[in-house]
Amino acid sequence: MSSSRDDFGIAIRSALLKKGARQRFSLVFLLIIAVIIFLLDSRQFKLVKFTRTLINDGIYRLTNISTAPFKLLPSINTKIEAIFFAMNENKELKVKLEELKNKEFQVEFLKNQNDSLRRILESDVKIKGKSILAKVLLDKDSPFLKSIVINRGSKSGISKGMPVVDGNYLVGKIVEVNYLSSRVLLLNDLNSRIPITFGEDSIQAILSGKGESKPVLEYLPDLYEPYGNQTVFTSGKDGVFLPGIPVGKTEMDELNVKVKLFSDPNQLSFVTVQLIKMSKDF
Amino acid sequence: MAILYKNIRANIVNSLPLIILYYLSISEIDTHFSNMFEILSFNLQIIIIYYWMLKNSSVLGNGHIFFAGIINDVVMGLPLGISSISYLTVSFVASYIRQVTVNISLFTDWFTFLLAIFFSNLVYLVLILNFSDLKISYVDISYNAFFTFLFYPFIWAIFNIYKKIMVLRADD
């Protein structure tokens, strides 16, 4: 009994402390370093935050370069397809369709949400600023986090919380800002919560990401009878997003009202960051 | 000249698992196939670390595993150090198993790999839940762990074939 306990102790000690030709550091030493880094980072120490910002910028650029050959493959495929499907004609039709869709959204939004929009417009929310185009550097599809990294940072005037759109459609908001890059939390991430409005009665709800492709609507009114195919817009109630940005269409699920996003989060190449500074005087 | 060429070739061949580990951490090439099959995702880094730490720890160094974890955290937007701790936990389990196991077969490797996945995910979850504001999906983590475990024999077979072309020195 005592001997087996000794063997166990020796094996554990050996695994933790042993070094070798390519093992210059013992496992226990590296574990301690990793824990210290983790604790410093989670406590948001200024020095660690600054160092992380520098590392982030460097590694994001490196990641972008290292995946460049793989990014070329789809573009070659697209070019081949374009020859067969008359690319120019297709583009023109897409532009026309986009214009029509935008007009349709505009009309629907104005018609259905006239009262709430007037309230929003008459409130003391003031919007200043412009928008900036950014390239998606990194969209590593993690099973745990749904986010992208863009090539604009605090140097371009980006700050935390700014909305990010793909064309006219909302895709997420800025959650991490470095000097030359930023991280965008996508709408379908588990941590994403956006106030929205939809339908003839201007129903207010929260769009919650669930880590799946379609986020769900939460905090709907008690007596609300859900039905699908309604356009969902941002309500602007949080003072972060502009009101009236199209987000997606409602879809009925067994238990939840899901939203099919207009912009596919997995297909983003360029996005626009709205450099808005909203001052709320409620 | 021939010796030099042989050495260079041996170095490249021996370093390939390490290069793959770094490349998986730094690049967008990942093993999450949500477009094809929503729940299918597995952690190839853990398999690489476990296999090579178990078979021949001179192929990967603990320092490299630590740095690969740090890079992975930066790319994934996770708190710095969490992947390093998770990977080093896998390395620790593999080192321990290497110390106490005499007969090595696919089934012993596969069974003990379950322990490595368990401890790695346990450490990951405990740290995220207690020291971070991040929300994580337990279902996604469970699927990831399950598929990582499921795919181990396939990767094991590939690495076993690859190991035959490597020129390895005796394990430390």
Quick tags:
heterodimer, A: 282 residues, alpha+beta, six-stranded antiparallel beta barrel, six-stranded antiparallel sheet, 6 helices, B: 172 residues, mainly alpha, Arp2/3 complex 21 kDa subunit ARPC3, 73% helix, globular
Question: How would you portray this structure in words?
Answer:
- The complex is a heterodimer of chains A (282) and B (172).
- Chain A contains six helices and twelve strands.
- Chain A starts with a helix and ends with a strand.
- Chain A is an alpha+beta fold and 282 residues long.
- Chain B is mostly helical.
- Chain B has six helices and no strands.
- In chain B, α1 packs parallel to α3 and α3 runs antiparallel to α4.
- The chains are: A alpha+beta (282), B mainly alpha (172).
- At the A-B interface, α1, α2 and α3 of A face α3, α4 and α6 of B.
Topology:
The complex is a heterodimer of chains A (about 280) and B (about 170).
Chain A: H1 2-17, H2 27-42, H3 46-66, H4 68-84, H5 87-112, H6 114-122, E1 126-138, E2 147-150, E3 163-166, E4 169-177, E5 182-186, E6 193-198, E7 203-208, E8 216-218, E9 231-234, E10 246-252, E11 257-261, E12 270-279
Antiparallel strand pairs in A: 1-2, 1-12, 2-5, 3-4, 3-12, 4-5, 6-7, 6-9, 7-8, 9-10, 10-11
Chain B: H1 2-26, H2 44-55, H3 62-76, H4 82-100, H5 106-131, H6 138-165
Helix pairs in contact in B: 1-2, 1-3, 2-4, 2-5, 2-6, 3-4, 4-5, 5-6
Instruction: Return Rg of chain B in Å.
Output: 17 Å
Instruction: Please give the radius of gyration of chain A in angstroms.
Output: 24 Å
CATH topology of chain B: Arp2/3 complex 21 kDa subunit ARPC3
Helix content of chain A: 25-40%
First-last Cα distance of chain B: 29 Å
Helix-strand sequence of chain B: HHHHHH
How many DSSP H or I helices of chain B? Answer: 6
Please tell me the overall pLDDT of chain B: 83
Unreliable runs of chain A? 123-128
